[in-house]
Specification:
A hairpin with an 8-residue loop joins strand 45 and strand 46 (789-790). The protein is 15% helix and 33% strand. By secondary structure, it is of the alpha+beta class. The chain binds alpha-L-arabinofuranose (AHR). Alpha-L-arabinofuranose (AHR) binds at residues 1-2, 46, 48, 280-282, 405-406, 483, 521-522, 532.
Length: 791
C-alpha cells in the first residue's frame, strides 16, 4: 500500500462491556490445524526514519563524505528543485513531471559546522579535481587565513542529532586530508556538545599532506554524552581539503568492523527473527529508476561508496550495504531476503521504467550477480570472489529474493514473468516473491511457484475486523505479509495499535498453511526523524526502546506453536466488530498447549475453558500478558511501561476460567500430557481454520510404484496414491512425506473420458517435456488399451 488511511476514531467506552459468556471456549488437542510456519516472524529493514544511518549502522559522523547535497541519480537541478526525467509512468501511463524541492547549500553543510577562535576561517563543500575517490567527488575545503597564538579553526561534526559517547569506550577515528600549504598540527577532539567539555583528544603532528593522506587514531571517551561532537582543529593558516571523516565505536555488535550499534542490534536479537528483508521498501524502486538502490554500489571499503539520495528525504551512505546485511543475517541465524528493483521506479513518484530486451536482460543479470555474490563458488564466479575477498568465502544464508517492491499492474506482470521465468530455472533453491497482493486478479497471468507480498497500513478497526482475512484466502500461493502496521489515530503507536495487530497476527497464525512469513514495517525510527507515523523501535544517540507493537511481535515469535489445535471461538461474537479473539496451538518441543487471547476492550474479560484431547492438564503454567491503557505509549523516559509480564497461574485444568485484563494480549502456556490420537476435521471447518493434514519425516518411506526426479538440490518421489503421493528429500536418506497429494482435485475431463475413474492414481511417471513446467496427465484404464484414454 502506498498510502495509509486517514485515522479512524475508535471509541473505547463502557458500551463495549463484556456480557458474561455461558458456554466455555472449547479447545481440542486431538483436532490438529495448520502446521505453524517456523518462518512466520521476521524483520523488515529499510533506510527510512534514519533506521540505518543514525540508527542500526554504528557510524557516528553524519555526512562523512560531504556528498549529502548530491542530486538523486537521474535528476537535474533547476531553481531550487530536482527534476526527474520526462518519462511515462508505468502504472498511470502519463508523464507526472515529477520534481522535489532541493536546497543545495543547506544540504552541503548537513552535520557540519565551521568555527574559529582567534583565527579566520571559511569552510565550503567543493567538487575536487583530484578527489579522494572518483565515486565521491566532494570534500570540505577550509581556508584558514589568520591564526593568532593559541587560536584555531575548527571543523565540527554534530553526528546524528548528537554523537552518543560512553565513558570508557574506545572510538576509531579515520579521516583524510590534503593540502599543499598547511604546515600545522591537527587535533581531533571528542566534545560534549552541551557543556563544551573536552572528552578525549589526539594530536596529529605537522606532516607532509600534499597528497590525500589517511589519518587514524583511537580515542577513549572520559565521560558519557548524548550530544557529543567530533572536532578537528587546525592551528596554522593554509587551505586544507578534508574528506571521509568517520568515527566508529569499537564495541559494535559482535565487534564487527563497519558493523552495527550493539544495543540496537540486540533489540533485533531479542525478537528472534527468522529472516531479514533488505533494503526496503520504496527505496528499492527509487523516485526515478536511476535512483533505485544499486546493491553493487554498497560493496567495498565504505570510503568508496557513493551513497544515494533516499526517497525518504536524506542521503543514505549504504555503509550498511549488501555484504553487511548478509553478514548480519548470518550473525543472527536468520535467512536473508533480498529485494531488487524489477526495472521500474515507484509509480507514486516518477514511475519510469525500462522495457527493451537489453535493459531487461541487464535487470536479470543484476539479480543473478546478487544471488551469486551470496551463494556462488568463489573459484567460479567473480561476484562470489568479491565476497570471499571481503572475508567470507562460505555462502551466506540467502533464501528469498523479491522481484520489485509494491509494483502493480500489467507492466509489472510483464517484468515479473520475464525475470522470474529465467531466475527460477537457474536458482531453484531460492523462493521468489511477487509484489502483487494475494487476491490480485493479475496473479492468473503469472504462472509459477512463488510467494506473494500483500501490505496493510491501517487503523485499529481494520486489524480487529480482519482476524479472518486469510480464512478464505486462495491457497494457490504462499503469502508473505511483508509490511503491516496499525498507524491510524494511534499516536506514535500506542497499546491499542499493538493489541489490534495482535488480533491480526492470530489470524495469520491460524492460517499459517498459507501465511508463511510476515514482517512489521517500518522497523526503526530515530527520535529526531519521523518519515512514517508508527515505527517499531525508537532510538536516539544513546538509548533504544521498543513500542508496545515490538512486544507483541516478540510475544508472538517466542510463543509460536508447532501446529494449531481446534478452538471453538477464534472470535467471540460478530467477527467484524468483536474485540475478543482466541487462538490455540501445541508446542511439540515443550509439550505445552499455547492459548493466546486478545481482549481489545477497556473492560476485563472473564472466560471459562474446557480442554479436550489430553489425559492430563497440569495445574501450574505460565501466563505472559501485555496490558495497559489504550492510549499509553512507551517513551525514552518509560521505555518498558508497556511490556509483557510473566506470572505463574496455578489453576489450569481440563476446566478452568481466567479473567483477561482490559486492553490485553495474553499468552498461556499449559503443560498437557497423554495427547489423544488426532482426528482430522473435514470440509468447511478444515478450510476455514487452515486445518491440514501434516507432513512427516521418515527414513523408511513406504511407497508403491515410485518414480524419482531431482530439481536443484531436492529429490522428489511420486508414487501410487490418491491424487498421486509425493515425498521430498535433500539426501535421499530422510524423506518428508507430504500429506497433500499432487492433485487434491482431479480434473473433470479425466472422469469424463475414463468413466469410473476415482482419484486413485497408479504408477505416475515424470518426464521432462520440452523443458516445459506444469503437470501433464494421461488417464486410462489399467491394463486396457481398448478403453478410452485422454491427455
Ligand atoms: O514501510 C514504509 C513504506 O511503506 C515502504 O517503503 C513501502 O514499501 C510501503 O509503501
Amino acid at each position: 500500500m502506498k498510502h495509509f488511511f486517514a485515522p479512524a476514531v475508535l471509541l473505547l467506552t463502557g458500551t463495549l462491556t463484556v456480557t458474561a459468556q455461558t458456554e466455555p471456549i472449547r479447545i481440542d488437542l486431538a483436532q490438529k490445524g495448520a502446521v505453524v510456519s517456523p518462518n512466520l516472524f521476521g524483520i523488515f529493514f529499510e533506510e527510512i526514519n534514519h533506521a540505518g544511518d543514525g540508527g542500526l549502522y554504528a557510524e557516528l559522523v553524519q555526512n562523512r563524505g560531504f556528498e549529502e547535497h548530491v542530486l538523486p541519480s537521474g535528476m537535474t537541478y533547476k531553481d531550487g528543485k530536482a527534476y526527474a526525467p520526462d518519462a511515462m509512468n508505468y502504472e498511470h501511463r502519463n508523464n507526472r513531471n515529477w520534481n522535489i524541492p532541493w536546497n543545495l547549500e543547506e544540504k552541503k553543510m548537513t552535520g557540519w559546522r565551521v568555527t574559529d577562535e582567534k583565527a579566520t576561517v571559511t569552510g565550503e563543500v567543493v567538487e575536487v579535481k583530484v578527489p579522494l575517490h572518483t565515486n565521491t567527488p566532494h570534500a570540505m575545503q577550509l581556508t584558514i587565513k589568520k591564526v593568532q597564538k593559541g587560536g584555531k579553526a575548527v571543523l565540527t561534526n554534530t553526528g546524528y542529532w548528537g554523537i552518543g559517547l560512553k565513558q570508557g569506550e574506545k572510538y576509531d577515528l579515520r579521516f583524510y586530508v590534503k593540502s599543499a600549504s598547511y604546515k600545522g598540527s591537527i587535533t581531533a577532539r571528542l566534545v560534549d556538545g552541551t557543556t563544551g567539555k573536552s572528552l578525549g583528544t589526539t594530536v596529529f603532528a605537522a606532516r607532509q599532506l600534499k597528497d590525500w593522506t589517511e589519518l587514524t587514531a583511537t580515542l577513549t571517551a572520559n565521560d558519557t554524552a548524548a550530544k557529543g561532537e567530533l572536532a578537528l582543529e587546525f592551528d596554522k593558516p593554509g587551505t586544507v581539503l578534508i574528506d571521509y571523516v568517520s568515527l566508529f565505536p569499537q564495541a559494535t555488535f559482535k565487534g564487527r568492523k563497519n558493523g552495527q550499534r550493539a544495543d540496537v542490534a540486540q533489540m533485533l536479537v531479542d525478537l528472534h527473527p527468522k529472516f531479514m528483508r533488505w533494503p526496503g521498501g520504496c527505496i528499492v524502486e527509487g523516485t526515478t529508476y536511476e535512483n533505485r538502490v544499486k546493491w553493487k554500489e554498497t560493496l567495498g571499503d565504505p570510503m568508496t561508496r557513493r551513497g544515494e539520495w533516499d526517497l525518504w528525504g536524506y542521503r543514505a551512505t549504504w555503509g550498511m550495504g549488501y555484504h553487511e546485511f548478509l553478514q548480519f543475517c548470518e550473525d543472527l541465524g536468520m535467512d536473508a531476503m533480498f529485494v531488487n528493483n524489477a526495472g521500474m521506479s515507484c509509480s507514486v513518484r516518477n514511475g519510469d521504467f525500462v522495457s527493451s530486451d537489453a535493459d531487461m536482460d541487464a535487470v536479470i543479470q543484476d539479480f543473478r550477480d546478487a544471488i551469486d555474490y551470496a551463494l556462488a563458488d568463489p573459484t567460479r564466479n567473480k561476484w562470489a570472489k568479491m565476497r570471499a575477498d571481503a572475508g567470507h568465502p562460505k555462502p551466506f544464508p540467502l533464501k528469498y529474493v523479491e522481484i520489485g517492491n509494491e509494483n502493480v499492474g500489467p507492466e509489472y506482470v510483464t517484468h515479473f514473468n520475464y525475470i522470474f521465468k529465467r531466475l527460477k530455472a537457474e536458482y531453484p533453491q531460492i523462493t521468489f516473491i511477487n509484489t502483487l497482493g494475494h487476491t490480485d486478479q493479475l496473479l492468473a497471468q503469472v504462472p509459477g511457484q512463488y510467494m506473494v507480498d500483500p501490505h496493510w497500513y491501517r487503523d485499529p478497526n481494520f486489524f480487529f475486523a480482519n482476524n479472518h482475512l486469510f480464512d478464505d484466502a486462495p491457497r494457490t500461493h504462499d503469502i508473505y505479509v511483508g509490511e503491516y502496521a496499525c498507524l491510524g489515530g494511534v499516536g506514535a503507536g500506542n497499546l491499542l495499535a499493538a493489541i489490534s495487530e495482535a488480533a491480526f497476527i492470530l489470524g495469520m497464525e491460524r492460517n499459517s498453511d498459507v501465511v508463511k512469513m510476515s514482517s512489521y514495517a517500518p522497523l526503526f525510527e530515530n527520535e529526531n526523524r519521523r518519515d512514517w507515523p508508527c515505527n517499531l523501535i525508537h532510538m536516539n544517540s544513546l538509548e533504544v526502546y521498543g513500542r508496545a507493537s515490538y512486544y507483541v511481535q516478540q510475544m508472538a515469535a517466542n510463543n509460536r506453536p508447532s501446529y494449531n489445535v481446534y478452538v471453538s471461538e477464534p472470535t467471540t461474537g460478530d467477527p467484524k466488530t468483536t474485540r475478543h479473539f482466541c487462538q490455540t496451538g501445541y508446542d511439540e518441543q515443550t509439550g505445552e498447549l499455547i492459548i493466546k487471547v486478545v481482549n481489545g476492550t477497556d473492560q476485563p474479560y472473564r472466560r471459562s475453558f474446557t480442554i479436550d484431547g489430553a489425559t492430563n492438564v497440569m495445574p501450574t503454567g505460565r501466563v505472559i500478558a501485555l496490558s495497559g491503557n489504550a492510549t499509553d505509549e512507551n517513551t525514552f523516559e518509560q521505555p518498558t511501561k508497556l511490556s509483557p509480564q510473566t506470572s505463574l497461574f496455578g489453576k489450569f485444568g481440563k476446566q478452568f476460567s481466567y479473567e483477561f485484563a482490559p486492553m490485553s494480549f495474553t499468552i498461556m502456556r499449559v503443560k498437557v500430557q497423554g495427547l489423544a490420537a488426532s482426528v482430522q476435521p473435514t470440509g468447511q471447518q478444515e478450510r476455514r481454520r487452515g486445518f491440514q493434514r501434516e507432513a512427516f519425516t521418515t527414513d523408511t518411506p513406504m511407497v508403491h510404484d515410485p518414480v524419482m526426479a531431482k530439481e536443484g538440490d531436492t529429490y522428489y518421489i511420486y508414487a501410487t496414491g490418491m491424487g498421486i503421493q509425493q515425498l521430498t528429500s535433500r539426501d535421499r536418506k530422510t524423506w518428508t512425506v507430504s500429506r497433500q497429494p499432487v492433485m487434491s482435485v482431479i480434473p473433470g475431463w479425466t472422469t469424463d473420458s475414463v468413466p469410473g475413474f476415482g482419484n486413485h492414481v497408479w504408477a505416475p511417471d515424470v518426464i521432462q517435456w520440452h523443458v516445459a513446467g506444469g503437470l501433464h496427465i494421461v488417464a486410462r484404464h489399467l491394463g486396457r488399451t481398448d478403453r478410452p484414454s485422454a491427455c
